[in-house]
Amino acid sequence: MLQILKRELPSGYVRFAIRFSAALLVLLVIYKTYLWFTEQKEDLDWITYQVSFLSHKFAVALGIADCEFSCFMDGCRIGVEGKMINVLEGCNGIKLAFVYIAYLVGVNENTRSTIIQSIVGLMLIQLFNVFRIGMLVMLMYHGGEVYFFFIKYIFGVFIYGSIIVLWLIKPLIDKSLQRYVQT
Amino acid sequence: MYRRRFWLSTLVMLNLYVLLSFMITAKNGFEVNSIHSHWLTVAFVKMFFTYLYFRLTRRTFFQFCVAAAMGTAVRLGMGGSFLAVIFACQFYLEFYDNPVKG
Q1: For the segment A106-130, what is each residue's pLDDT rounded down to a tens digit?
Q2: Which of A65, A87, B42, B78 suits a disulfide with A28, CB 3.0-4.6 Å?
């Protein structure tokens, strides 16, 4: 059985799987611990609050002048009266960002590059998420018929697509960073 | 040719997966609890999609098993994204593990 496994699984893939899983586990455990502490304090977590706050600012910038913003222990509500959307902890996109970072750790070729790309990627994914929630507020405000299609389909593809693009440009960023370090 | 097959499969997988999520919510509404009634069926469908995705991109059964086990552990254990884990494995296999030009 072990020999079949050795033959079938390239060692690089096993190494990637272990590194990826370990990195993701560490990140998720830290995040869950942080969530537990905020729950104990009966507070909303900082990431969900910031994503909601920036989404509200973005929605106002898009032209929804009377856009309201209120936060509770379980999440925030953004929009105009009667057409509010709920931004809960699961909507903050941090778990997807963790998968992105775990992938970088899994294929790790250069530690410095991995750290830089993790920070930049995390911020970019959150920016994509802010754009997504801001657009959802906008869609809810202007009718709301296509809102359901957008929240479950278009933006689902959009957020996964953004991570795929970041993974794709990783070799290019690695090369640029290497050139930068050499010069 | 191989690369084209990979991209096409990834595009189909992404759309199928998100479409499934869309259909479930369209049927049940936004209440999460109502999905739990047939979560096992949905899990099997997702696993089947993943298997097809690995077959289409010419991966081995063991590679599929490792990816599926990782995805399931992340989803059930920590509430993370199953699809993102599957994509991570596929992207590693495509671009870092004996990459093919095409």
Answers
A1: 987 678 888 888 999 899 999 998 9
A2: B78
Selected residue with higher pLDDT from A54 and A145: A54
Among A125, A152, A166, pick the best mutation site for testing chain B contact (most B Cβ within 10 A). A152
Closest by CA to A48, choosing from A117, A125, A102, A126, is: A126
Q: How many domains does chain B have?
A: 1
Q: Do B80 and A164 touch (CB under 8 A)?
A: no
**SS3 of residue A77 by DSSP:** strand
Determine the average pLDDT of the residues in B74-102: 83
**Measured between beta carbons, which residues in chain A are less than 8 angstroms from residue B93?**
13
Q: How far is CA B13 from CA A37, B48, B62, in A?
A: 37, 11, 19
Chain B residues in contact with A96 (beta carbon < 8 A): 81, 84
Please report the ipTM that was assigned to this predicted complex. 0.84
